[in-house]
């Protein structure tokens, strides 16, 4: 079984390194569905922001009850984009740690 990038085949050790990096990313990526579910249940307390790692903003939401509900409602429009941004940053960090140029 060989991994192919473009038209060049990867050596076995390189393929294993890529698979290891992909497995690590899979274990830390965030789910859009889970983020929305947490928003529905705990949005006013900033639970979805805790889930996505936005600790500072989530603490602010916790103590202000979601900006009296304004931030919580507004976040409903932005959660999807935030999940994509968090996942992109996590993937880039993992691939950089493994020395892999990520073009996806």
UniProtKB/TrEMBL annotation:
Keywords: Membrane, Transmembrane, Transmembrane helix
Main localization of the protein described in the UniProt heading: membrane
Membrane topology qualifier: Multi-pass membrane protein
Ranges of residues in domain TM2: 30-77
Transmembrane domains' residue ranges: 34-52, 58-80
Subcellular location: Membrane
Protein name: TM2 domain-containing protein
């Amino acid at each position: 079984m060989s991994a192919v990038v473009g038209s060049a085949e990867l050596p076995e050790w390189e393929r294993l390194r890529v698979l290891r990096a992909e497995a690590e990313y899979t274990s830390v990526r965030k789910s859009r569905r889970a983020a929305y579910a947490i928003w529905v249940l705990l949005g006013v307390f900033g639970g979805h922001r805790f889930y996505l790692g936005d600790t500072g903003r989530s603490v602010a939401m916790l103590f202000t009850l979601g900006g009296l509900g304004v931030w919580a409602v507004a976040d409903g429009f932005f959660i999807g984009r935030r999940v994509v941004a968090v996942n992109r940053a996590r993937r880039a960090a993992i691939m950089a740690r493994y020395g892999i140029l990520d073009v996806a």
